[in-house]
UniProtKB/TrEMBL annotation:
One of its GO terms (molecular function) is phospholipase activity. InterPro entries: GDSL, PLB1, SGNH_hydro_sf. The keyword Transmembrane does not apply. It comes from the Bacteria. Keywords: Signal. Pfam families: Lipase_GDSL (PF00657). The keyword Signal applies. Residues 1-27 form the signal peptide. This is GDSL family lipase.
């Protein structure tokens, strides 16, 4: 059995504290932040979670204040009311990893104590397989953003979420005529979702390669977060591994999480984070 990185780090820290005579129960508790910002793409913006092709930031899994979603912000507010009103959504719909440096700069300028980052879907979900972001470029983009946060907010905590499994989106939606129509009409994620009912080997192989690209992105996110240090927490692929269902996806585009999907994303990502 592989022990998650965060567990190993916690055990090591507790051992050191015991040797030094400190109280592990007190020292192990990480104070919940009094401010936060989210960086990322349309998922973090809550796109299509409450209306037709609009951002619904109140329903964001990260910084939203919609009670049904029970975002990171609301969960933190329950234990630290001083965060009230200090939940800033710096994400932008359509963003890719290349946009993270700029968004990181915005979060730094806001002086927040906690930053969430969910990015990569748009790097893989492009017009064709050939236009996906190369893995090395993706990693360089992530490193530049994290380095900017670490330099500007050295004490802030950063939660990095894995990219969702877009291959699963194809799997659960390919049998729905409505999903197939939306994917085609709006040109959604054609690198993965083109020819959704095809069983031709070329299409099967293409989908597998796109899924592998997402897996590679997640490996780079994990490594970048580990290189950042103790103030960065990767979700150990919890978001990627979650077996979401079609009822958790917007019926306007059959791509973005709806309110139910945002609630699940909030629960899964928070449970695999800092544990406030």
């Amino acid at each position: 059995m592989t022990i998650p990185r965060r567990v190993l780090a916690t055990l090591a820290g507790l051992t050191a504290l015991v040797l030094l005579g400190a109280d592990p129960a007190t020292a192990a508790a990480t104070p919940p932040p009094a401010s936060m910002a989210s960086i990322g793409d349309s998922i973090t913006r809550g796109f299509n979670a409450c209306g037709w092709y609009v951002d619904c930031t109140s329903r964001s899994f990260s910084t939203g204040d919609y009670s049904t979603v029970n975002s990171h912000y609301l969960r933190i507010r329950a234990v630290n009311p001083t965060i009230q009103g200090r939940n800033l959504n710096d994400a932008r719909s359509g963003a890719k990893s290349a946009d993270m440096y700029g968004q990181a700069g915005t979060a730094v300028g806001q002086g927040v104590e906690y930053v969430t980052m969910l990015i990569g879907a748009n790097d893989a979900c492009t017009s064709s397989e050939a236009t996906m972001t190369p893995v090395a470029t993706f990693r360089a983009n992530i490193d530049s953003a994290l380095n900017r946060i670490r330099a500007g907010l050295p004490n802030a905590r950063v939660a990095v979420m894995s990219v969702p499994d877009i291959h699963r989106l194809w799997f659960i939606g390919k049998g729905s005529g409505s999903a197939r129509s939306a994917w085609s009409a709006f040109g959604i994620c054609q690198s993965m979702l083109a020819n959704p009912t095809s069983t031709a080997q070329a299409d099967v192989d293409r989908r597998a390669r796109v899924r592998q690209r997402v897996i590679d992105y997640n490996s780079q996110l994990a490594q970048a977060c580990a290189a950042y240090g103790a103030n960065c927490d990767f979700d150990d692929n919890a978001v990627f591994n979650y077996p979401f269902v079609l009822s958790q996806v917007s019926t306007w585009d059959y791509f973005h999480p709806n309110t139910s999907g945002q609630a699940v994303l909030a629960s899964v990502s928070y449970a695999n984070g800092f544990g406030w």
